[in-house]
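Archive transcription. Copying these from loose printouts into the bound notebook so they stop getting lost. Printout 1 of 2:
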Amino acid sequence: MLDYQALDETLARSRANAGAAESQGMLCGLLCAHADPRAAWLAEMYDDPDGADVLAREGRKVLEQLYADCRRELGNGGLTFMLMLPDDGAPLARRGEALRNWCQGFLYGFGLSGRNVDDLPEDSRELLRDISEIARLALPEDDNEEDETAFAEIVEYLRMGVLLINEELNPVRQGPVTLH
């Protein structure tokens, strides 16, 4: 899995339209709602869709890795998927801002898919409403144990929620069970 800080710096340097958290959120929203959103996602990330800009090519390279990682983690039916956020050593306010950006990206990506929210299973509709609420949360001003705990619980709720949405909309196809 890519490192948040390295990805964020590469995307900033390559003049991407979103940072690490928002770009992964957008990709996850598209992947949950759409079978193969690679081209649409990359078009949203850069103003130069043909990739003629040298800096944008550097960014596209790391985005291709992020795409492969997210597609594999969401598609394997396991629990390896993690949100692309600053590590626990970063100030809580910075992590909170990244979480908000992740949620906004997810909702934007899901919206890009054109999926009608009213046609989704109830659990997925409720989770999308929750993601929208989390995107509007006030950011903590200082690091304290209570806020750290709440933040960790929200991140885990989102992580599991994304896995649930993905499973409801893109069930993992398991081969036939064989007995030996």
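Printout 2 of 2:
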Amino acid sequence: MQKYHVNLSKEERKKIKMVLRSKRVSMEAKKHSQILLDIDESDGKAPLRASVVSVRRGVCSNTVNRVRRTYAEFGIERAIFRKKRETPPVEPKITGEVEAHIIATACSAAPEGKTRWTLSMIANKIILDGVIENISDEAVRLVLKKHNLNLI
């Protein structure tokens, strides 16, 4: 006996068929849609067992059970598509302001006694100026490369 049941309405079936026809939807979403159609109980016939669906769709039986549970608990959107991220990714340390300071330093005259700036000298100068707390030579190199600047 199944703990979670999938009874698709006409609107939900229509949405699933749109997902299956769409070219902009991931294969994962299409597989989840097909699984939902296979385990649907709304048309009166018995749904396919998880083991049969898993072989038919090329997924693990745990995936079938997870899709069934997610549909029952959260609805069709969440059963087909991935959960949206609640917190944004980590903010980048190197902002436009930091990039501007790196570029300005690299384009300025080299310090006294030196013929040109090195990556570590630029990184140290940016830290001493209080623009950023810490930065690696590699990060400085990537900023300069991004803007097609060469230290030669």
